[in-house]
Amino acid sequence: MQQLQRCIGQFDRLFRCRLIPELSSADRPVLVERPVLHCVRALALALGAFIGASAIADDSREVTLDSLAPTPEHRDATAGIVQLMQRYHYKRVAISDELSEQIFDRYLESLDPQKNFFLASDIAEFDQYRRKFDDALRRAKLQPVFDIFKRFRTRVEERAAYAQDMLKRDFDFTIDESYAFNREEAQWVQSQQAMDELWRKRVKSDVLDLRLAEQTGEELVDTLAQRYQRMARRVSQLAANDVFQFFVNAYTLSVEPHTSYFSPRSSENFKINMSLSLEGIGAALQTENEFTVVRRVIAGGPAALSEQVSVDDRIVGVGNGKTEEIVDVVSWPLGDVVDLIRGPKGSTVRLKILPGKAPAGTPPKVITLVRDKIKLEEQAAKSSVVEVPGVGGDRRFGVIDLPTFYLDTAGLSQGLPDYRSTTRDVKRLLNELKATDGGVDGVIIDLRGNSGGSLLEATQLTGLFIETGPIVQIRDSSGRVDLEVDDDPSISYDGPLAVLVDRGSASASEIFAAAIQDYGRGVVLGEPTFGKGTVQSVVPLDREGKLGQLKVTIAQFFRVNGEGTQHRGVVPDVLFPTALDSDAQGERGLDNALPWAEVAAADYDAWAEDSPNYGHAQFRHESRYRASSSFNLLIEELEAQREARAQNQVSLLEANRKAEILERRGDREEREELIRKAFGASGSGDDDDAEFPDIILNEAASVLGDIIDHQGKAN
To answer: Is 261 a member of any domain?
Structure first.
């Protein structure tokens, strides 16, 4: 404990001396000045010595109930984590009864998010702790945390046994009843009889799902029996460290959604999520309830190149090779699912996937991927040309597709002349576009789905389009504001410019788009961006990575005009109608997200004296999409996906379930085919070589053409 206090004291002195980190712009480890890095690691190692002491070595071993108790190491670690949060987190939240209530509710939610296990009588019994979790933090009184978990484990074992017993029965699928699978907003179940009824319907729904996926007889029963056994086994393997992690994260997430503690076992999963070459398929995975969910598809990876894997897809089965049996992985721990997906480059893996955009009850699809490492050239910026009608003839616009803000830091530090970077590649592509026969009438930077990356590259990329000036302001937890500045006066492109964004554009993407907008250098098109304007520091707790990691929010980004990108994101100059439910998307939909804020504007020179007005472009855009059958079909498809996500129950009447699935699938396929025909695309939805037209990109080009025409008339 003395070592911990010395580390905190040293860290405090460094903060007072303003030796703060150089910040990155995404959920990736930040680059930190050496004195701070050494101190943070020393602090983390001190915490790790406490936290890592009770790590279990064998994930397959059942943990005894007697071993589920707080240790002295956990108590000391709690004190250290609280000090770290209170002193250095960007958002200072006092330990109070009000916070205790939030932690209490979030802890229960982390254990039983769908209210499928705890009874209302359990919650009433636990209510004595609702205002005592602040004491658990201040005085390290952790026993109630473990008592609640033990009850949870007992309830899970009861439900698993009941579910397996239900598999012995025959279900009548001609009865018109439904199963509410999404119970996040439901009340806690009032009685044992009501819980039995809930699980009767759950098992019946699981059986129907497999029947519709053409599983029958012993195969169906074995699949579900193993699923329920794994559900109980997964909970029985959670050790004291895991319980401690649930509690600490209930605290950190009650403060702010991007601050987390990762125990030794979950640290490896975090590293996997951060990797650009995840286990050979190129997708970041996360456990959500009992499913392994795709959270990000990495550009250049097999999953992205297949165009068959999307965000929110659920992986329910994995099979190695082309013929090996696909194993049901519902209720598996994330690490075990990843182990099954993992394999050597060039080998085949088959995934059984429930599409995230499909309505509930839809049978899964099976896709085949060949494992590979992500190719840098696939992640790198690419250029193309799109042509749209304009006044006086067709216009040609150069498009630069930018999946991420990348930088070969090793090549840069070694002084290699050919190191790869976003700015260098985009500069080359701009020169190539200008050199094509007839050049281009404008340039579109496509940042859709770009979740961020290097802050340095966001700054330097902006510099390709302006002379010099500040690009982003960064305020740390002490209130100090620093600037990231472009000091290169050269401009690579000074013509008409558009930046295309969507709700997946985050962090570094928002910095670039905001700077282009603030300087009046170009028009921003599309949907409001994600709204992640905070910076996290991720520090391993030991050199081998065996003791877990700490991720703490330490700073916030602000635009040069003083406004924050946090929470609101960047609102486009011309809004596209695809921004459905934008208030619930991104940072705006996260609990305890930092609110929008502002600082004083930086000193910068805008591109033009008068701020551009794009009202005419918005009017032309709305007139065009309302008259466009293909654009309206796209909006219908997005609305159908929204309705599917909002669905919280399914019919247990087999005929109805089949009819709903076929109707929705048919509607979607019809819409996609009509869109293809409207754009003159060849092939059909059943043709793997069919090219689906990019309606949004074509419309972005049309909007930029409208702006050019309007400016021409004004001149």
So the answer is: no
Strand partners, 536: 553
The reply to whether 715 and 602 lie within a common domain is no
628 is catalytic: no
Task: Check whether residue 361 and residue 293 sit in a common domain.
Answer: yes
Cα 708 to Cα 445, 575, 702, distances in angstroms? 16, 18, 10
Total domains in the chain come to 3
- 495 and 605 share a domain? yes
Q: Please give the single-letter amino acid code of residue 519.
A: Y
Q: 424-448 burial, b for 16+ CB within 10 Å, e for fewer?
A: bbbbebbeebeeeeeebbbbbbbbb
Enclosing H/E stretch for 604: none
Q: Is the dihedral of CA 26, 31, 33, 35 positive or negative?
A: positive
- What pLDDT is recorded for position 297? 82
Pair (625, 689) in one structural domain: yes
Q: Is 532 a catalytic residue?
A: yes
Domain at 296, CATH number: 2.30.42.10
Answer yes or no: do 652 and 696 share one domain.
Answer: yes
CB–CB of 556/474 below 8 Å?
yes
Buried b (16+ CB within 10 A) or exposed e, 362-372: bbbeebebebb
DSSP 217: H
Among 507, 582, 630, 702, which one carries the catalytic annotation?
507
Dig out the tokens for 490 from the structure: 């050269």
* CA-CA-CA-CA torsion sign (564, 567, 568, 570): positive
Mean pLDDT (10-residue bins), the chain, 715 residues = 46 40 34 34 38 37 88 80 85 94 96 96 97 91 95 97 95 95 93 97 94 86 92 91 91 93 59 43 78 81 86 89 85 79 87 80 85 72 91 89 88 85 95 92 95 91 96 94 95 97 94 97 96 82 55 93 96 89 78 94 90 92 90 82 82 90 76 68 46 82 94 69
Residue 107 inside a domain? The answer is no
Q: Is residue 683 part of a domain?
A: yes
| Same-domain status, 384 and 445 | yes
Query: Does 575 lie in the same domain as 522?
Result: yes
Among left, alpha and beta (phi > 0; psi -120 to 50; other), residue 192 is alpha
Answer yes or no: are the C-beta atoms of 550 and 538 closer than 8 Å.
Answer: yes
201, 352, 532, 551: the active-site residue: 532
Q: Which of 518, 573, 651, 706 is catalytic?
A: 518
Rounded Cα gap, residues 126 and 15, in angstroms? 40
Q: Whole domain around residue 347: which residue ranges?
A: 277-370
Per the domain annotation, does 108 fall within a domain? Answer: no
Can 168 be counted among the known catalytic residues? Answer: no
What is the predicted pLDDT for the residue at 678? 64
Q: Let me know whether 401 and 517 are in one domain.
A: yes
Q: Rounded to a whole number, what is the distance in angstroms from the first to the last CA of the chain?
A: 71
* H or E, element range at 156: helix 143-166
The answer to whether the Cα torsion of 30, 32, 38, 40 is positive or negative is: negative
Other Cβ atoms closer than 10 A to 697: 20
Beta-carbon count within 10 A of 661 CB: 18
- Cα separations (Å) of 271 from 27, 267, 335, 396? 11, 6, 11, 43
**Pairwise CA distance, residues 160 & 227, whole Å:** 9
Of the candidates 458, 451, 32, which has an alpha carbon nearest to the alpha carbon of residue 273?
Answer: 451
